[in-house]
Amino acid sequence: MSVDESNNVHTRLQVHNCVVQPLLTDLYQITMAYAYWKSEKTSDTAVFDLFFRQNPFQGEFTIFGGLEECLRFLENFNYSDSDIEYLKKTLPPTIEQSFFGYLKELTAKDVKLYAIDEGSVVFPRVPLIRVEGPLIVVQLLETTLLTLVNFSSLMATNAARYRMAAGDNVSLLEFGLRRAQGPDGGLSASKYAYIGGFDGTSNLLAGKMFNIPVKGTHAHAYITSFSNPSELKTKTLINLNNGKEQDLIDLTLSWRTTLSNLLHISESQASDGELAALVSFAIAFPEGFVALIDTYDVNKSGILNFCAVALALNDLGYKAIGVRIDSGDLAYLSNKSRETFVKIAKEFNIPWFANLTIIASNDINEETIWSLNDQKHSIDCFGIGTHLVTCQRQPALGCVYKLVEVNGTPRIKLSQDGSKITMPGKKDAFRLYGADGFALIDLLKKSVEDPPIAKTKLLCRHPFDQKKRAFVVPSEIKPLYKVYWENGRIMQRLPDLKEVREHVKESLRTIRPDIKRNLNPTPYKVSVSDDLYEFMHELWMRNTPIGELS
């Protein structure tokens, strides 16, 4: 890593969430730490895997998020004096005082962290992160690492699914702050929605902190706060064609009369209060005029008033941006609005008017977008809030953090539920690609094994089903892990959000369409090497109690 890159990493890590600290954990991590310490396990080393067991949203892929925040946490891992004082008051009085001195000196300098690149497409059972180091320290990291990865990955995956539903030609804006699970949830949602493929956010603080484009218009309250044009104090706008001020209200009213005849919409049905509000907003933002048009009635009022203001602006040398529809039949209303724009463009020879932006909001979810696609909507941009930021379809990913090795000896967790059996020992992960460039399968091997070689026949086995196995001849193989943390510092250049966002796109392009489809997606295969399979099952049998019948 160059000096410039190192400085860049250091600067970016200063933007650290102060809530993310060692006490952002479960009590039992501290009680286990004390029990380990009491058992004189301070010199023991361990390896933990952080992974998930099932893809979210009934899909077959997940986007890995939260790695940079995990690294920030490691860099700042240290118990403060106030932390120690709080623990002394909270833990039982039988705790030996020297344990608190031990805790006070702990840092992550002896931890080594391997991870898949943030923004990568990942799959169940493949560890996203492997953590090695002193047993007590790496145990203490568990809860915080999980909380940093779980929601981030879930949110990025949700956003990526919305992006695939909307397609590449429709903009997506995240409008969910007011519905998010608190301020921290709102900020995280904005950040990882952007990573997952959204184009902007309404969240100003997220825009400031993460350099995400911010977008917004106005609320229904702004429209309903006006009664009629006569109450406007400011009525004029500079005409860009001649530099003179001109009355925008008079111009707008004139256009409304003309359009009423063209569009067969009665002026008497259109709201004068709405017109006043739109004129006021246009005077404030003449070069960025986007209007909410469903406060009263889109077809009888909103579209007429908007077009009158937009044409008045056009006379003065300004181009309106478009409209937002926040209720009603979005497919029908968007198509009617587009028809109106096209008709006006032809009637008055204003070509750009046909392409005014139509933004739709109103409690949209992934299924809504697929349905609107089927209805051939004319929407250019979706503003999505509640269902996106709360991940209503599935509110948790379910990442786990499991011990797989102690002092160089592999460990296995058994369960009557086969999905909860862990894969023991240090493992490396590889992605195998076919000649068409699509990923074929992920392969886990013991870290002591030689890495797989492209264009050779490889036996890939299902981790738990001996009947499921296949030979694979990959055209290309990519190792998935890099050392991201070692010797108390970050070992890789950390990409910015735009780069992570681009990596999400690139990674998704390597996954077959049938794996990514919305309905009945094909499961992606995760396999183990023959050596890992045999080792796993030997350890499984060795640790399974033998029953006795009598």
Question: Which helices and strands occur, and which strands form pairs?
Answer:
Blueprint: H1 3-13, H2 27-38, E1 45-51, E2 62-63, H3 67-75, H4 81-90, H5 97-104, E3 112-115, E4 121-122, E5 129-134, H6 135-140, H7 142-166, E6 171-174, H8 182-196, E7 200-201, H9 204-210, H10 220-224, E8 236-238, E9 245-247, H11 248-263, H12 272-284, E10 290-292, H13 298-315, E11 322-325, H14 330-347, E12 357-360, H15 366-374, E13 381-384, H16 386-389, E14 400-406, E15 409-410, E16 427-433, E17 439-446, E18 458-461, E19 469-472, E20 476-479, E21 482-486, E22 489-490, H17 497-509, H18 513-516, E23 525-528, H19 530-543
Describe this structure in words.
Helix content is 39%, strand content 17%. The chain has a seven-stranded antiparallel beta sheet with strand order 15-14-1-5-3-21-22. A six-stranded parallel beta sheet has the order 7-6-13-12-11-10. A four-stranded mixed beta sheet has the order 20-16-17-23. It is an alpha/beta fold. The protein has 19 helices and 23 strands. The model is unreliable at 1-14 (pLDDT under 50). Helix 3 packs antiparallel against helix 7 and helix 4 (81-90) packs antiparallel against helix 5 (97-104).
Q: What structural keywords apply?
A:
single chain, 550 residues, alpha/beta, seven-stranded antiparallel sheet, six-stranded parallel sheet, 19 helices, elongated
